[in-house]
Amino acid sequence: MAMPLIAYANPSRFLALTERVLPWLVGATAIAFGIGLYQAFWVAPEDYQQGETVRIMFIHVPAAWLGMMCWTIMSVSALGTLVWRHPLADVALKTAAPLGAAFTFVCLVTGSLWGRPMWGTYWVWDARLTSVLVLFLMYLGLIALWRTMEDPTRAGRAAAILTLVGAVNLPIIKFSVEWWNTLHQKASVLRLGGPSIDPAILVPLLIMAMAFTLLFVTLHAAAMRNEILRRRVRTLRLRQAQAAQGA
Amino acid sequence: MDFGPHATFIIAAYAVATAVVLTLIAWVIIDYRAQRRLLAELERRGITRKSVAHPSTPP
User: Is A50 in the B-facing interface, judged by CB distances under 8 Å?
Assistant: First the structure.
């Protein structure tokens, strides 16, 4: 099983794989969103406390999970870049950052839009909200770092180090609601003793989470393909310039 | 479908999420076309991975 996966670590083989797999991923994502949105709007009941605003949770919670999952994937990729110098690890890291930033942005905005009618305010500087805002700013910093360096190899190593340092924020986000007294509610899905949400709301939430995850996998694979092509263009231009100088 | 008194917040949340997702999809598609076009342009000028060997690469 490991051998075929290693084979796809080659950029050319990865390109061939994405050409075959992407149409299926797009289809699966569309179907998952179709089912998830149907469940979210027509099947899930309104919450006894939140009322209809519970429907915001069907995008807020998956976006929050993905914002954190994305940095986790980037941290693994950072290890791949620094330790094993894996040819695709740096590509995976670079292309995941804008996606992570986008999902974290969705999490922050939808959370804010939920907070106004439920808490009476769009924003409070509590530990959970602030640590997620820090995550969003770290994504922006990482994207800016890449843009400041011309050489992708040097930029990749610097970004990998920054990613691993930033990973310390992930447990802070996760456990902020346990460690500090926050306005944000405690974990209600991924917790010891199982989810505390009623299945009528939990099932649509999990389907939407699956749809968002499929969307991330699809966009990440497509963005990685684009980055490989971009590096090919850069290499060809460099070689062309070197050949012109040598002539 | 009646979202009650907080409909504005619910619709705004889904509108923002939809806009962000559509932007990501557009970014990926536009970037792919741009890179393909650049590669095709280089190939048209005879610059391919095989034709332009690295100077340090033995023939």
Answer: no
Axis crossing angle, helix A54-82 with helix A152-166, rounded to the nearest 10: 120
Which residues in chain A belong to E strands, given as ranges? none
Gyration radius (Cα) of chain A, Å: 21
Model confidence pLDDT, tens digit, residues A184-243: 877 777 776 777 778 889 999 999 999 999 999 999 999 999 999 999 999 888 888 887
* Tens-place pLDDT, residues A85-106: 887 899 999 999 999 999 999 9
- What's the complex ipTM? 0.89
Secondary structure (DSSP) of A2-38: HHHHHHTTSHHHHHHHHHHHHHHHHHHHHHHHHHHHH
pLDDT at B56: 44
| A235-to-A99, A166, B38, B39 alpha-carbon distances in Å | 25, 31, 12, 11
DSSP A87: T
Contact between A226 and B1 using a beta-carbon 8 Å cutoff:
no
**Extents of the domains making up chain A:** 18-184+198-239
CB-CB neighbors (< 8 A) of B4 in chain A: 46, 51-52
List, in sequence order, every residue forming a beta bridge with A51; answer none if it has no partner: A47
CB contact under 8 A, B20 and A56: no
Classify A51 as helix, strand or coil. Answer: strand
Looking at the DSSP bridge assignments, the partners of residue A47 are A51
DSSP state of A186: P
The answer to whether A107 and A63 are in contact (CB under 8 A) is yes
User: Can you tell me the distance from the alpha carbon of B23 to that of B15, in angstroms, rounded to the nearest whole number?
Assistant: 12
Whether the pLDDT of residue A117 is over 90: the answer is yes
Q: Nearest-CA neighbor of B36 among A230, A20, A13, A15?
A: A230
Query: How far is A13 from A198, CA to CA, in rounded Å?
Result: 45
Place of tokens 């699809």: A218
- List the single residue in B2, B10, B32 with the smallest CB-CB distance to A226: B32
What secondary structure letter does DSSP report for A121? S
